[in-house]
Amino acid sequence: MFRAISRFFRAMGYLLVGKVDAARLALGSSPDAVRATFDKIIEEKKKRITQYKDAVGAMIAQEEKKKSELTRLSEETVKLEKLKQGATIMARRVVERHSGDAEAVRQDPEYAKCQAAFLDFSSTLEEKEARCVSMEEDVAEISRSVDEHKSQLTELFRELEKIKAEKHETVGDLITAREEQEMADMMAGISQDRTSQDLQELRDLRQKTKATAKVSREMAGIDTKHTEEEFVKFAEQSVANTEFDALIGLAQQTDEGEDESTDKTRIPEA
Questions:
Q1: What is the pLDDT of residue 137?
Q2: Do 42 and 163 touch, CB atoms closer than 8 A?
Q3: Domain that holds residue 114
Q4: Number of separate domains in the chain
């Protein structure tokens, strides 16, 4: 008993699940539901593209920042090169002033100043040139990455446009398919309807009813036309027999016999 009840409720559950799934499929295949699903997908794609575009924009901003810094470093290296040249020129003047006396030149404070400046400019220049090289590599890498992401963005925009076009095509196909299915179902209903069968049944019923009514009339003795026709037929036969009897001389005997028969059956008067 318990197993039977359990199977019953399990079957009811399967039935309800099947109906829910069928209803879900029916709703999901409607043009309005498909249009709403496509709109949701398109909206999500737009959000992702916007986020991606913002990230690419941040990379471009970083690239521009590094380019500006690289430009500044390049300008500083050019300036340092000029400072080195200036220190060298000033040191040569000191050498000229001491007529090339190395010991006197080294003892000259201006020479020491020029030498210290030259060394400082040189070390700073080397440092900045190294930074420029590193910065150039960073800018090239960012630029290459930005170009790749721009291509990817272009592909995403192209895909989004395809989805938009696919939305209209899919909804149009669903509407057309549904209309064709409705037309086919209608035509199938026309070809498989009971019109001809119903008409034939009505005709058969009519014939059966007429036959039944005819039998009823005959059985009830109300078919007067048929009875009148029989009376006329008997009258015509009687007239024909009388004429024939008259021709062969039997009519008078018949009349006399009828009169005698009448006299015998007449009641005497008082």
A1: 92
A2: yes
A3: 48-178
A4: 1
Provide the percentage of residues in the chain whose pLDDT is more than 90: 24
Average pLDDT over all residues of the chain: 76
Enter the pTM of the model. Answer: 0.50
Provide the CATH number for the domain around residue 155.
1.10.287
Task: Kindly state whether residue 215 falls inside one of the protein's structural domains.
Answer: no
Interval 85-111: pLDDT, tens: 999 999 888 888 888 888 888 888 888
How high is the pLDDT of residue 83? 92
